[in-house]
Amino acid sequence: MHYNPHQLNRERLARIKEDGMSHGMETFIDAIEQAQRFNATQPQVRRNGEEYRKKLVTVYFSWVTDNRLMAHIITNDCDNPRLERLVIPEAGHRLYANYKDGYQANGYGYDKRYHILEAMVFQVGKHIDMSKTRHWSEYIKAEVIA
């Protein structure tokens, strides 16, 4: 069987259109909703010197090529945290030849991680209300791992 990434990408996007969202999107939404629920219960006023508690959602990026990144997220299923690949075709994850799959970002001087993260959050906003708590950039972060 011949590996045709363009055809596979089209098929993945068509399947998502039928199913509503990808597994990666569901995973990302779950993490965001957990953070929103936790952050909404925290007091808005704190005593002088008291640290504000908030739950962050961190997307960890690793470089595949100079302009392509792979995303990961730590999931907390049943108190068993693990690092999981975050594959969200709706936000630009594509299959490429030579198994260099990932999110393509040229950036043009713009932070490539943040560019991809914005695309992910934009897609999430199509499924859930992102304005329930603070601006998303205050609790959704991007980090680079090796």
Tell me what you see in this structure.
- The chain has 146 residues and is of the alpha+beta class.
- The chain has one domain (5-41, 50-144).
- It has helices at 5-19, 23-40, 112-124, and strands at 57-65, 68-77, 80-85, 93-94, 102-104, 140-144.
- Strands 1, 2, 3, 4, 5 and 6 form a 6-stranded mixed beta sheet that branches.
- A hairpin with a 2-residue loop joins strand 1 (57-65) and strand 2.
- The radius of gyration is 17 Å and the shape is globular.
- The mean pLDDT is 87.
Quick take:
Helices cover 32% and strands 24% of the residues. The protein is an alpha+beta fold and 146 residues long. The protein has one domain.
Number of domains: 1
Total strand count, please?
A: 6
Strand content: 15-25%
Please give the share of residues in helix. 25-40%
Radius of gyration: 17 Å
End-to-end separation: 33 Å
- Mean model confidence by pLDDT: 87
**Biggest beta-sheet profile:** 6 strands, mixed
Break the fold down into its secondary structure elements and pairings.
Blueprint lengths: L4 H15 L3 H18 L16 E9 L2 E10 L2 E6 L7 E2 L7 E3 L7 H13 L15 E5 L2
Parallel strand pairs: 1-6
Antiparallel strand pairs: 1-2, 2-3, 2-5, 4-5
List its traits.
146 residues, alpha+beta, 3 helices, 6 strands
